[in-house]
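Continuing from the previous page...

OK, I double-checked the sequence for Cupin domain-containing protein against my notes and this is the correct one:
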Amino acid sequence: MSDQHDQGTPPTLPYWHVYTDADGLSRQARFEISAFKFEGVNPETAPQWNAKQEPSKAAVTFTVLPVGWVGQWHENPKPQWIAILSGRWFVETMDGTRVEMGPGELMMGEDQNTRERDGKKGHLSGTVGDEPCTMIVTGLDVEPTVNQPGRFR
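Thanks. Re-ran it with the corrected sequence; updated structure tokens here:
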């Protein structure tokens, strides 16, 4: 396929990765997806930037967290991408890091296999502000990893 468009510099996409470290403690840090390729999704489609992830079975859930909602300490049920559509929420990990996220932000929840400490296991999360938080959650049917922060590139 001939390249009729100026590709420019490949983009990056920031995301928060909530993960379990080698000691069973949940942590979170910001990383970037950067393995973008300029290609069409098929021969008839103009090229675009795509960062394809490993194929897996997935389930999509649309979630609306009510104002004042707090999900007490818990692990993500499976590795899952969470994209905030509207409103705001926070995620606090066992290491004491608290991050607030809003529309357009992305998080990978992969804090399975944490070890309870001081009544905390996984993460604490809840809505922020005076409006519900709407999100799309894509749960992946994959084995969670341990101590691989930022593994999605």
